[in-house]
Amino acid sequence: MGIEILGTGSYVPEQKLTNDDFTKFIDTNDEWIRTRTGITERRMAGWEPTWYMGAKASAQALERAGISAEKIDLIISCTATADFHTPSMASVIQRELGAVNAAAFDLNAACSGFVYALDVARRFLQTGDGMEHILVVANESLSRFLDFEDRGSCILFGDGASAAVVTKSDKLYSSHLASDGTGAQYLCARSLQVAPEVKVETDFNDGFTDKPLHKLYQDGKEVYKFATKALPKSFELAAAKIGITKDEIDWFIPHQANIRIIETAAKHLGAPMEKFIVTLDHYGNTSSASIPLALNEGIEKGLIKRGQKLALIGFGAGLTYGGIILEY
Ligand code: COA
Fold it and tell me: How many Å lie between the centroid of ligand 1 and the Cα of residue 273?
């Protein structure tokens, strides 16, 4: 059993941070950032909470799906940058939408979040216990967790949200979700709250960075190595389950981390770059929101058409990865 994507929607904050803007507070330049990452600008949420962006994107997805909020049975919000430890972003978005009949929870699989959440949604629909419409919303405010003194990481990320309303169908579908926790320490941000008597760097060595609480840390080289392998592997594992080849895929929609990662993976896959939807130049890496932002943009531009086969491929902190192949 597959899913039908009834409607998608996106929301990004207005404020832009260009590569040149970074030169005002770190030692960098537009040329380095563009050639090493492909990014030219990204959005910054400022006053807008993560849930606010998620609710805006969700409202657009509902409108395009032609579904009223009361018809939503479940809201899954994927986020690694929630506004609250509790309640979930999904519950706050439910309140904003008036989706009074929905169950609601958050899912954190970092940048693979949307792929994980969409696959979880499909499995809920598959049980046949009455759920018909599920809202999957990815919302992220990376800017609140960035270390703006670390030029190797702060230039990569941006904020935004995107959502999809899905229902069950018998369209083509395959997925494979995976994780390699042995690399968990390569991309992380500690919780804001730890027991005040514990000094993480001296009292308890858990193998993670002792970087200031709740700032993002990454080992760029390790993550790069992982990402270039995880991207083709995720596709191949999902494709093998249904015996589909890369040539039958109309659009690859990968997590938008770095253009060099996408180009290297495309080479490994033997697929032309023209088949890859790329939005990282104007949004940067928006974690779980990046795949649905690219999906929605491809649909809005008329590139992605009904009946086409899509490969959504996520990878990120965890280290999580996963692929979904589906007919749009
Ligand atoms: N501007 C200018 N110079 C910078 C810089 C910046 N923003 N960031 C790093 N540099 C410098 C480094 O300090 C280093 O200088 P040195 O040689 O004097 O020590 C030099 O550039 C090369 O750094 P390096 O880390 O080797 O660059 P890189 O080619 O590996 O690119 C990343 C760095 C972060 C772009 C790359 O490792 C990457 O994309 N990793 C994956 C990150 C990712 O995708 N994360 C999210 C996954 S979901």
Answer: 23
